[in-house]
UniProtKB/TrEMBL annotation:
<feature type="domain" description="Glycosyl hydrolase family 13 catalytic">
    <location>
        <begin position="96"/>
        <end position="515"/>
    </location>
</feature>
<dbReference type="InterPro" id="IPR044077">
    <property type="entry name" value="Amylosucrase"/>
</dbReference>
<dbReference type="InterPro" id="IPR006047">
    <property type="entry name" value="GH13_cat_dom"/>
</dbReference>
<dbReference type="InterPro" id="IPR045857">
    <property type="entry name" value="O16G_dom_2"/>
</dbReference>
<protein>
    <submittedName>
        <fullName>Alpha-amylase family protein</fullName>
    </submittedName>
</protein>
<dbReference type="GO" id="GO:0005975">
    <property type="term" value="P:carbohydrate metabolic process"/>
</dbReference>
<dbReference type="Pfam" id="PF00128">
    <property type="entry name" value="Alpha-amylase"/>
</dbReference>
<dbReference type="GO" id="GO:0047669">
    <property type="term" value="F:amylosucrase activity"/>
</dbReference>
<dbReference type="InterPro" id="IPR017853">
    <property type="entry name" value="GH"/>
</dbReference>
Length: 636
């Protein structure tokens, strides 16, 4: 081969030298990050697995995934490392959606990005899209292959391309990482079913019913009606396999280091497709111990902490969002400590359930107490706030407090369920029960925000007055969500007031799971009416648009603002104060059917953030189910 000479030769040399500089810099960055976490990671790994070889493999695989991470993502990692808590900015607005319902497939979502921008959304949660068997998928939460997209939705390349396009528009992408279980069709499960001991040890297999029976004594049921029990008998194999959720979702055994390592490789692989936020599905369940309830065990925290460190080493730009649908004292520990953080972000689940409790009871006391608990937590804790998501509402509220007011759990839950089904006099809500337990009488609830606020019933009755009231309530609840610190997360369809979809009942694969009532197709025809003045869609969409714009604009919404609730003489009035710098926001919400007179704390000038008007105020009339965002300058 002739030697390269002249200008071309030296250009090639420069390019070579440059790529060596980049490689050296890459090496340095990785070594530095690994060194930062090595001791703690090794300590925790050894404590759990006591296996040097598997730990060495984990470290070398982290390097492999780091090397595979593309330049753009590495640059984003560095940018985010420097800027710190990028996901805590007050301009964040999220939206969660099913790819097929929203836009058919991944390419369709890419085409719809302008609509999402119109919604001010800069964080999208794409509901489970990995390969999952039809009819046995639990809405995609039974993953058959962690490296393959459902063919009808597209390919991994489509996903990476969508993530890249989103990044160009400043939109972050979230996906689920279902780590508690795999589908029974996953390669490991198939091999385990064939009797391969290596693969059986990745799940919980028992030939004898005695251990499953022991577990059943202490482990509660997630789906008591649709999937009773925590084990499934496999008649051909003569074995029981642990299935906390549906029988086709086999629980992974994290006592086996091979399971941990391989799942971490899957996590890194997915992060490398450009995911910004990884939602760790059903995380409290990932460690099992006989004689316990198999929820929130200390080793769960060891695993999440290790996952956080692995992320910090390979892809520090990503955020871990923990799905911990538990009472507040169980949720907060998933943030870890300041020195040893676990999840970056958690769902504000009790606040969500308590908000709906307040809608039904028109009594803000419990919500105020819940807000006070959240406000007393360190400001670094970031919550994801929401009104509705793809799951049912489990009525996980503070029953001990309710008992003090002589309200008992079972009748109160019944009251809530009756109210939201529209069975109570005066209730405008519509929806269905979920997993009604015939033994305990317990039941959860499913419906969309709009249907719970009365938009469905008002539309059905063609009653304009009721419709206006329902829209006001819907907007007020969103304003309440936007008032909280953390990231507001809309559920696709809520921005246009989409109501329940009852067609799931005609689909044999969905009919038994009433959560599909709020997992309907996004109605583009209705979305087409967002510019039509006075339409339901226009009223809701433009109001949310405005709230998001104000939130983005006003420093009182900063994550670090001081937030507290104010004592007010009326039990239907929730009053939240946010203070940042010289400004103070008074956010007042009327959870009642009557118009109320609100007496301001002092007669002074307030700026109404919704109208932009500045007024001297002593008192103000607040219509039923409406709210105020009044800002006051603190004069020093
Ligand atoms: C999570 C999901 C839920 C699913 C369960 C089992 O709780 O949100 O939809 O059924 O995990 O994977």
């Amino acid at each position: 081969m002739p030697k390269k000479t002249g200008r071309n030769g030296s250009a090639a040399k420069t390019a070579l030298a440059q790529s060596k500089i980049i490689r050296d810099e890459d090496e340095r960055v990785f070594r530095e990050r690994l060194a930062r976490y090595y001791d703690e990671l090794r300590w925790l790994y050894m404590e759990l697995y006591d296996n040097n070889d598997m730990f060495a493999e984990l470290c070398s695989q982290m390097k492999v995934y780091y090397n595979q991470r593309n330049r753009k993502l590495k640059a984003l990692d560095q940018k985010r490392e420097i800027s710190g808590k990028w996901y805590r900015k007050r301009d964040m607005t999220g939206m969660m959606m099913y790819i097929d319902n929203f836009a058919g497939n991944i390419k369709g979502v890419q085409e719809k990005l302008p609509y999402l921008e119109q919604c001010h959304v800069n964080y999208i949660h794409l509901m489970p899209f990995l390969d999952s068997p039809k009819g046995r998928s639990d809405g995609g939460y039974a993953v058959a292959d962690f490296r393959k997209v459902k063919p009808e939705l597209g390919t991994m390349d489509d996903l990476a391309e969508l993530a890249e396009k989103c990044h160009e528009k400043g939109i972050s992408v979230c996906m689920d990482f279902v780590m508690n279980h795999t589908s029974e069709d996953h390669e490991w499960a198939v091999k385990a079913r064939e009797g391969d001991g290596e693969y059986m040890s990745r799940y919980f297999f028992y030939s004898d019913p005695s251990i499953p029976q022991e577990y059943e004594k202490t482990v509660p049921q997630v789906f008591p009606t649709t999937a009773p029990g925590n084990f499934t008998y496999l008649p051909k194999q003569g074995h029981y396999v642990m299935t906390t959720f549906y029988p086709y979702q086999w629980d992974l055994n994290y006592r086996n280091p091979r399971v941990f390592n391989e799942m971490m490789y899957n996590f890194l692989y997915l992060a490398n497709q450009g995911m910004d936020i990884i939602r760790i599905d059903a995380v409290p369940y990932i460690w099992k111990e006989l004689g316990t309830d198999c929820r929130n065990l200390p080793k769960v925290h060891t695993i999440v902490r290790m996952m956080r460190m692995i992320g910090e080493i390979v892809c520090p730009g990503i955020v871990l969002l923990g799905e911990v649908v538990m009472e507040p004292e169980k949720v907060a520990p998933y943030f870890g400590t300041v020195e040893k953080p676990e999840c970056h972000m958690l769902y504000n689940v009790t606040t969500m359930a308590t908000t709906w409790n307040t809608v039904a009871t028109r009594d803000i006391r419990l919500l105020r107490k819940q807000m006070d608990i959240v406000c007393s937590l360190p400001k670094e804790y970031t919550f994801l706030n929401y009104l509705r998501c793809h799951d049912d509402i489990g009525w996980g509220i503070d029953y001990a407090e309710l008992k003090r007011w002589e309200m008992e759990e079972v009748p109160h839950k019944k009251y809530l369920n009756d109210y939201f089904q529209g069975k109570t006099e005066g209730s405008v809500s519509r929806g269905e029960l979920y997993n009604e337990d015939p033994i305990t009488g317990d039941a959860r609830f499913c419906a969309t925000t709009a249907s719970m606020c009365g938009i469905e019933s008002a539309g059905f009755e063609q009653d304009d007055v009721k419709m206006s009231r329902a829209i006001t309530k819907d907007i007020m609840l969103h304003a309440y969500m936007f008032t909280q610190s953390g990231i507001p997360m809309l559920y696709s369809g809520d921005e246009i007031g989409q109501i329940n979809d009852y067609t799931y009942r005609d689909n044999s694969e969905k009919a038994l799971d009433s959560r599909y009532i709020h997992r309907g197709k996004f109605c583009w025809e209705l979305a087409g009416r967002i510019r039509e003045k006075g339409s339901v869609q226009n009223r809701i969409f433009s109001a949310l648009f405005k709230l998001e714009a104000i939130r983005k604009e006003e420093p009182v919404f900063d994550a670090d603002a001081e937030v507290y609730t104010k004592d007010y003489s009326d039990l239907s009035i929730l009053w939240i104060v946010r203070k940042a710098g010289p400004e103070e926001l008074h956010a007042v919400f009327n959870f009642s059917d009557e118009c109320k007179t609100i007496w301001m704390p002092e007669t002074t000038e307030y700026a109404d953030l919704l109208t932009g008007e500045k007024r001297m105020l002593e008192k103000v009339n607040l219509p039923s189910w409406d709210f105020l965002w009044m800002k006051k300058e603190i004069r020093i």
